[in-house]
Amino acid sequence: MGDIGEDMAEQMAEQFFASRGHGVLSLADENTGYGIPISYGYDPTTSRCVIQLVSEPESQKRSFFETSETVTLTTYDYDSNDNWQSAIATGSLVSLSDEEVATWAAAVYFNQAAQTDTPVRQEGSDREISWHAFEVDSLTGRQGTEERGSTTFK
User: Fold this and answer.
1) Beta strand segments in 30-154, E
2) Domain 6-141 adopts which CATH fold?
3) What per-residue confidence (pLDDT) applies to 115?
4) 121 Cβ partners below 8 Å, 6+ apart?
5) Would you state the pLDDT for residue 65?
6) Which residues share a beta bridge with 23?
7) pLDDT the model gives residue 149
8) Which phi-psi region, left, alpha or beta, contains residue 82 (left: φ > 0; alpha: ψ -120 to 50)?
9) CA–CA separation, 123 vs 81, rounded Å?
10) pLDDT value, residue 135
């Protein structure tokens, strides 16, 4: 079994995080946690992720989005016990205005977010779509101890 790995340099963690486009967003309401798989686009110039939330009006996901003060977004790649990488960002969610979506956020999201299939995601009149910025306060990364020849990420 592999060890717990080693810290990534800050720049390498940010490159890995930016390259993924999907992960698990962990939300909370008092003492109750809720994690959801999510696609995101990361803008390194502003240290913000762009998230498009598609949900039912009374969904548990929407409720947790509205009550979470501090959230984490985790992304990872696992090949073996010694060959893996992960990055964890901690920060807060902020609703985006229509103008922010039109001027920069939608471009960041659709250029980088993984597995976004807009027509399917927007079908159905009972779904609500909202845009959020995940403002990253801290970003850390770890990796397995297997020799890595480059910083090119999948």
Assistant:
1) 32-39, 41-43, 48-55, 71-80, 83-95, 128-143
2) Pnp Oxidase; Chain A (2.30.110)
3) 53
4) 52, 54
5) 85
6) 38
7) 47
8) alpha
9) 40
10) 95
Residue 39, strand partner residues? 22
Please list the ranges in the chain whose pLDDT falls under 70: 1-3, 114-125, 147-154
Cα(32)–Cα(17) distance, integer angstroms: 26
Check if the beta carbon of residue 55 is closer than 8 Å to that of residue 38.
no
Tell me, what's the pLDDT at 132? 93
Residue 110 corresponds to which tokens in the numbers above?
A: 């659709």
pLDDT of residue 59: 82
**Two tokens, residue 88:** 């964890």
Q: How many CB atoms lie within 10 A of CB 55?
A: 17
Q: In the chain, count H helices and then E strands.
A: 5, 8
Is residue 75 within 8 A of residue 87, CB to CB? The reply is: yes
133 neighbors 50 (Cβ within 8 angstroms): yes
Nearest CA to 25 out of 65, 82, 85 is that of 65
Per-domain residue ranges of the chain: 6-141
Burial class (CB in 10 A: 0-12, 13-18, 19+), 35: middle
Residue whose tokens read 């008092």: 30
Q: Give the pairing type, strands 128-143 and 22-29.
A: unpaired
The pLDDT, as a whole number, for residue 34 is 94
